[in-house]
C-alpha cells in the first residue's frame, strides 16, 4: 500500500525517505466496496482520499433525484469535497465507489501535523489545490464554450480508460447530457 501515493507525491515535489516516513505515519489505508459511500451530502468532509486502486465519483443529487457527477477519481487521483474539508461546513457532494477500491486517507488533523513536520508538504498541497482549481476552470470553460464533440474528446483524453469502467449514463451525467444524447454523439463520432 502507498506505492502509487508516494510515486504521485514525488512527481510533484521530491521528498526524502525520512520525509516520506513522517508522512506515512499520518496516512490511513481504507478499502471500500463498490457502491459504498465515502462521504454523504450533509456530513462534514474530514478527509482527502487518494485512489490507490479502483474508481470513485463525486456527485450531487437535485430535487428531482437526478445525479450530477462532478468528478471521477481513478488510480492516482485524489477526491474530496474540498469546500467542506477546508471550511468545516456540511458537504454538498456525495462520494461513492464505482468499483471495489483501495484508498489512502489523510484527515484534516493529519494534514495539519504533516504540514508542521514536513514543510515541503505545503508546496505539494498548494500544487494539488491549484491543480484542482485549474481543472475546475478548464471544465467550466469547456461546458460553456466547446462544441459537444470536442467536450467528449476532452473527457476521453482526461479519463482514457473510463469508457470501459463506468456506465454510459454516468458519463452522460458528468457531461451534463441525457444518456440518449451521449449515445447519438458517440455514434456520430464512430461514423467518422
TrEMBL record:
It holds the Pfam family cNMP_binding. Gene3D superfamilies: Jelly Rolls. InterPro entries: cNMP-bd_dom, cNMP-bd_dom_sf, RmlC-like_jellyroll. It comes from the Bacteria. Residues 14-115 form the Cyclic nucleotide-binding domain. This is Crp/Fnr family transcriptional regulator.
Amino acid at each position: 500500500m502507498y506505492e502509487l501515493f508516494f510515486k504521485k507525491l514525488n512527481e510533484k515535489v521530491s521528498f526524502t525517505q525520512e520525509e516520506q516516513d513522517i508522512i506515512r505515519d499520518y496516512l490511513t489505508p481504507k478499502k471500500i466496496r463498490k457502491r459504498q459511500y465515502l462521504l454523504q451530502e450533509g456530513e462534514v468532509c474530514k478527509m482527502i482520499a487518494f485512489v490507490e486502486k479502483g474508481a470513485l465519483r463525486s456527485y450531487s443529487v437535485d430535487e428531482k433525484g437526478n445525479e450530477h457527477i462532478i468528478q471521477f477519481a481513478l488510480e492516482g487521483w485524489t477526491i474530496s469535497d474540498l469546500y467542506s474539508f477546508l471550511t468545516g461546513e456540511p458537504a454538498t457532494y456525495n462520494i461513492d465507489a464505482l468499483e471495489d477500491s483501495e484508498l489512502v486517507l489523510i484527515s484534516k488533523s493529519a494534514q495539519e501535523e504533516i504540514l508542521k513536520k514536513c514543510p515541503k508538504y505545503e508546496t505539494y498541497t498548494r500544487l494539488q489545490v491549484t491543480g484542482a482549481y485549474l481543472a475546475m476552470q478548464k471544465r467550466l470553460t469547456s461546458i460553456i464554450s466547446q462544441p459537444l464533440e470536442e467536450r467528449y474528446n476532452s473527457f476521453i483524453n482526461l479519463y482514457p480508460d473510463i469508457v470501459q469502467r463506468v456506465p454510459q449514463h454516468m458519463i452522460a451525467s458528468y457531461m451534463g447530457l441525457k444518456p440518449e444524447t451521449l449515445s447519438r454523439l458517440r455514434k456520430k463520432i464512430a461514423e467518422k
